[in-house]
Amino acid sequence: MKKFVDLDTQRMNLQVFLDAKKNLLERNKLGQFATPSQLARDIVEETLKFLDQKKIKLLEPSVGTGSFILNLLDNLPADLEVEKIIGVEKDPLYGEASKEFYENTQIDLSYVISDFTQLEPFEKVNLILANPPYIRHHYIPNKFDLVDKVLDRTGIKVSGLSGMYIYFILLSHAWLEENGVACWLIPSEFLDVNYGKKLREYLLNDVTTLKIHRFDTANSKFSDALVSSTIIWYKKSIPPKNHQINFTFGERIANPEVSKRLGYDDLLKESKWSRFPQNEVRTDNDEPRLKDYFRISRGIATGENTFFILNKEEIIKKNLPFDQFRPILPRPLHLESLNIQSDRLGYPSLKKQLFVLNTLLDIEDIERKYPSLYIYLQEGIEKGVDQRHLCKSRKSWYFQEQKKTSKFYCSYIGRAKDSGKSPFKFILNESQAIVNNSYLILYPLPSLNNILEEKPQLASKIINSLNNLDSSFMTDEGRVYGGGMQKIEPTELGNVNASMIARIIENEV
Ligand SMILES: C[S@@+](CC[C@H](N)C(=O)[O-])C[C@H]1O[C@@H](n2cnc3c(N)ncnc32)[C@H](O)[C@@H]1O
């Protein structure tokens, strides 16, 4: 009999009531996205399979209104007993209301209103169930104190780019009894990004990781947080020799669509764990990478596109000097073709030509030589553009990065396609247009540049081969966000296999 169903409904009503008291930015700052009850239930059911203990001592370090607690109590097999429940919540708004809520029930919950990362372990537990706050490092004001604290408590030096959940997991080590079980619902990014490495090492070396389940990102569990989620289960014990971790993927935790067991050696070598369980272990090979042919860099960050980027008609209307601007491609979404031809002035042959301010003159010279541009810049000051973070950091607030144009650009954010084609697009640019930071720029290294100077027709062959790459070549290196959004960073793009470029060159030279 489900005893707590009604109570869980009341709890969810309380959650809605409390969420409504905050705006999205405030909730983002504290990672306040409640764990959906059905998800908490599925997680509890799976976790119970790993538990040897008969008397549960539970810690929920980011308890909120306590979705895991009610779902655990409701799914407890007859031979298990809950001896102790500790819930920690930092935000008094959620804390006070939830504490009162539980005081009016039969549930004996030690509800502590405190920052979990500042709390000394006052009691050991044998079960941790948590959906810690997803707070990015920008919003963790004391992140360096936390880095030091984790180092002091665990000997692990994490990166300052770590999200809050990494500190939660590592600091909870001291709370867990030997052989205790922990289950964390966390963002998937740690599987791939550099700052996730320390957590991956922890899961390989310091605990016995039992299972890592990744949800299908196209169906994010949290519509309002837009984060793709992974669940990890581990036991606090040194992993036995030849231990394997069960990687699973799909909508249902208990009944995954794909699963694969992987051992220590394979996981230690692989820096992108999100390739599992769908893909095989990568074999090391000496095949060339894009970084062997290109230096890869981001497009320019203007600081305020709407102010610094203007179309031809606007420049004419405002009587601004064309020679103080340079052509720039529109965002990838608005690009008419992947092959950008040039007109006789070096401008891209596009219906709508855009230009970015590109002056190197100081303001006195501008006032003297180009009064209309001077007036335009004054308008920018009135709008506060000079106070934008990036603009403030420049020698003159309106100066733009002086990056060279290239024939090779890449749109590095995209959605996976059913066609199996890569979500990222390569653009052959024959014009003098630069790109903004919604693109990556690929500058040919001297060895490739020399070949291209001799045989310029190779550029379009290279672009075509890159656009026809099987999507796995690119997505293996990139990273996946909620809603199926994929992204590839400069160093990751550099690691993409480039054997097709080697073949093109071989055939031609
Ligand atoms: C993703 S929610 C999970 C909520 C909970 N599992 C539930 O039943 O809905 C994360 C919770 O952690 C809380 N939180 C944020 N920072 C915290 C901290 N440093 N210590 C403890 N709790 C924190 C948030 O206020 C939020 O309630």
Write the layout of secondary structure elements.
Layout (H helix, E strand, L loop, with lengths): L4 H15 L4 H6 L7 H12 L6 E6 L6 H8 L6 E9 L2 H12 L6 E4 L11 E6 L12 H12 L9 H9 L3 E12 L9 H9 L2 E7 L14 E7 L8 E6 L8 E6 H6 L24 E5 L6 H4 E3 H6 L7 E4 L10 E2 L13 E4 L5 H7 L1 H12 L6 H4 L15 E4 L1 E3 L9 E5 L9 E6 L1 H9 L3 H10 L3 H5 L3 E2 L4 E3 L2 H5 L4 H10 L1
Parallel strand pairs: 1-2, 1-4, 2-3, 4-5, 6-8, 13-17
Antiparallel strand pairs: 5-7, 6-7, 8-9, 10-18, 11-14, 12-14, 15-17, 15-18, 16-20, 19-20
Helix pairs in contact: 1-4, 1-5, 3-4, 12-13, 16-19
The protein binds S-adenosylmethionine (SAM).
For the secondary structure, the number of strands is 20
Q: Total number of helical segments? A: 19
Largest sheet: 9 strands, mixed
Mean pLDDT: 91
Assign the CATH architecture of the largest domain.
3-Layer(aba) Sandwich
CATH topology of the largest domain: Rossmann fold
CATH class of the largest domain: Alpha Beta
Strand content: 15-25%
First and last CA, distance: 76 Å
Question: Which homologous superfamily in CATH is the superfamily of the largest domain?
Answer: Vaccinia Virus protein VP39
In the residues, how many domains can be counted? 2
Shape: globular
* Ligand identities: S-adenosylmethionine
Runs in which pLDDT lies below 50 for 5 or more consecutive residues are none
Percent range for helical residues? 25-40%
Structural class: alpha/beta
Cα radius of gyration in angstroms: 27 Å
